[in-house]
């Protein structure tokens, strides 16, 4: 995409076209580029900056609060900066509240779910995009139906089923129901449709089986949608709440959001210094991931939005 | 290429080939199909079946040994005041929250669609950040800000305003949750809308400028109509997720005060918690049908607009 399409006005790539237009309208005394930019966008950016400050404020307030002592956080009116910054709230999560277990649970569930989706969604996506077979429309219909079903519609019977499979309160119960997400199938299929058939035919002529074609020819081409899928799956797994709340029944199986929610509605309900430290611990890994892999997060939204 | 070869060979080889391809394709789809059947199709059907039985937590080991009760669950559901109240809360949440979220998202998208690309990318990431954070963590922070002697009321006290106890007042609890949900969800729609705006050809807008159209006229007469499919898509995605809202009231208000934030999902969860799986399933089916109807209706609208 050319620069001029993305930023429709001014600086500096679309300058020529812009200035030609300006010449037609105001031939003399053209103000400098910076002045023109400020006139056109100054107000927008001022408002945006103000808005942005409000927007990130809850995050700042969360971090500031997590560094305050238990006594300071109770003070009315609240202090802005922590007077005696302390990490004791964080250490309490590790020593008293078993943060390590929750973190490992969340990590195991998110990583395995992500890996499973990468492999299985690409496999279905490949079948749907590149193989002509009986029942293809049926399969695609199933994927589309699954896209529409909310988890709130299925969690009660799912609970009964998982209990009878003797998987309640295990990693299996947290991972299996999410192992192949329809959105992932959809993403992979859309991308794989764009891979030229000639490439696969070449493989077939060389005598490669479907499995080899899939792993050695198709998958290496699919890095962009796989990165997007990985990020999307990891995010939704890390933040998933309703099902883990139902399926994880003891301390040793809680994921981070479940643990935090139970503490925040239990005895610790008013102990905000420790709750905010917990919130920081839950949010930080995913925010770091977001900062470094921003491109894929944004692509994920755009791709899942434009179905 | 292969098709040519097949045509020259006999028809039998072709059917054998197609059968082989079918086996391979379903083989590729097997993991998805298993997960779909076991954790989606079976629960969806059993949810329907369960809503006509008196299944409860004591039947969990013997789910087939329950009594058929006809429409009894639905009757008691529809005569339960709390159920109607939960539907009303959900409807309010969607009817107020959705337009609000869409308006803010659209304003941000328009503001970020022009000007400096790098600066815009920064702002875009910033406004998107709340989306990636766990709702539970976010809810803890907002509860801390909104509590009676919290930050918001302390700020209001500076200008001599006595703020209400936001989350414990029946008049302000739901609006507080709506504002928080807007803050959290604007990012997704903003990204989708920016993608939609970038697809609008700049020539059209330049032509309008030449004809002397102002910014507002251009927005109203060109941008909005061209953006309609994107707006509808955003409305579908967001309303489906708002119809299921659960995490926010779970942590922030526990459905209170006096059920004023008890959403449909929360009602379902609560009935499940009481062990009334039959009623819970019935309620979840009602919600599921509403969600399916909303998405079907909105997709229908979208198709009509496309024509």
Outline the structure in words.
Chain A has 2 domains: 3-91, no CATH class; 97-305, MetI-like fold. Chain A has helices at residues 3-6, 15-25, 33-66, 70-73, 88-95, 99-130, 136-148, 155-164, 171-175, 182-192, 197-205, 210-221, 223-239, 242-247, 256-265, 272-292, 294-305. The two termini of chain A are 21 Å apart. The model of chain A is unreliable at 1-24 (pLDDT under 50). Chain A contains 17 helices and no strands. Chain A is mainly α. With 307 residues, chain B is an all-alpha fold. Chain B folds into 2 domains: 2-50, no CATH class; 75-306, Orthogonal Bundle (MetI-like fold), CATH 1.10.3720.10. At the A-B interface, α1, α3, α6, α7 and α8 of A face α2, α5, α6, α7 and α8 of B.
CATH topology of the largest domain in chain A: MetI-like fold
Mean pLDDT of chain B: 86
How many strands appear in the DSSP assignment of chain A?
A: 0
What is the helix/strand order of chain B? HHHHHHHHHHHHH
Provide the number of structural domains of chain B: 2
* Low-pLDDT stretches of chain A: 1-24
Q: What is the count of structural domains of chain A? A: 2
Biggest interface, residues from each chain: A-B, 106 and 99 residues
Oligomeric state of shown chains? heterodimer
Distance between the termini of chain A: 21 Å
Major pleated sheet of chain B: none
Mean pLDDT of chain A: 83
Number of helices of chain A: 17
Helix-strand sequence of chain A? HHHHHHHHHHHHHHHHH
Approximate strand percentage of chain B:
under 5%
Q: Helix fraction of chain A?
A: over 70%
| The CATH H-level homologous superfamily of the largest domain in chain B | MetI-like
Shape of chain A: flat
CATH class annotation of the largest domain in chain A = Mainly Alpha
Features:
heterodimer; A: 307 residues; mainly alpha; MetI-like fold; 17 helices; disordered N terminus; B: mainly alpha; 2 domains
